[in-house]
């Protein structure tokens, strides 16, 4: 089990983060939240990485708008999350991700994000040099910024039945970045990795995590 720590961003903003794993672990990863906050699921992801020998930290990105915001996995939670996301803004979110990475003690650091966090993992790969590898699970909106060039290797995971991210978007990303590993999971919907969502798909989630760990093992 991990613990809640306080992180200070470059602009002086203090925010909380869930940290797990030994501080001297050989690999390290920033885990980026969904649109619902630092939920028990996101903490469990950190714990799972810790069990694999990682330092893991999940910054509470909503703290800039509302501290300790944990939202339900329903339409009301989604709408509230979208509102908070807009209040935080991408620039501030990226600043907090870099600050979280600075808490990790390894030379090379990875980043993995889910949903909104998947988009942010992509943006962090493109707009910062804090990470040696980036993985995004069902990151919506990546297609719209596919002309960007990442500063590190990237791996992307999408659900084949994800109405929020149509196949045309995935194809567009693939066409723009032949160097990026992109996996699509047949029968999987948006949020297929989250054990607390109705869309959880155990086979797809298990395979995607295996691929994520192999990717980080290679680059970190």
TrEMBL record:
UniProt GO MF annotations: hydrolase activity
Lineage per the UniProt record: Bacteria, Pseudomonadati, Pseudomonadota, Alphaproteobacteria, Acetobacterales
Source organism of this protein record: Komagataeibacter nataicola
Protein name listed in UniProt: Carboxymethylenebutenolidase
All copies of domain Dienelactone hydrolase, residue ranges: 16-218
Superkingdom of origin: Bacteria
InterPro entries assigned to the protein according to its UniProt record, in alphabetical order: AB_hydrolase_fold, Dienelactn_hydro, Dienelactone_hydrolase-like
């Amino acid at each position: 089990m991990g613990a809640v720590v306080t992180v200070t961003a470059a602009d002086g903003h203090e925010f909380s983060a869930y940290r797990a794993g030994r501080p001297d672990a050989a690999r390290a990863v920033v885990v980026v939240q969904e649109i619902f906050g630092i939920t028990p699921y996101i903490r469990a992801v950190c714990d799972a990485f810790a069990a694999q020998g990682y330092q893991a930290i999940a910054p509470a990105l909503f703290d800039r708008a509302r501290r300790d915001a944990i939202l339900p996995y329903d339409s009301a939670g989604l709408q509230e999350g979208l509102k908070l996301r807009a209040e935080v803004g991408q620039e501030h979110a990226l600043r907090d991700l870099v600050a979280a990475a600075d808490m990790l003690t390894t030379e090379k650091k990875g980043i993995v994000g889910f949903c909104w966090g998947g988009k942010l993992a992509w943006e962090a790969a493109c707009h910062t040099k804090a990470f040696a590898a980036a993985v995004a699970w069902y990151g919506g909106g990546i297609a719209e910024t596919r002309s960007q060039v990442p500063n590190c290797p990237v791996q992307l995971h999408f659900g084949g039945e994800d109405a929020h991210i149509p196949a045309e978007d995935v194809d567009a990303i693939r066409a723009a970045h032949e160097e990026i590993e992109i996996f699509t999971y047949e029968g999987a919907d948006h949020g297929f990795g989250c054990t607390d969502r109705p869309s959880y798909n155990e086979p797809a989630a298990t395979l995607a995590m295996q691929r994520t760990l192999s990717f980080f093992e290679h680059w970190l």
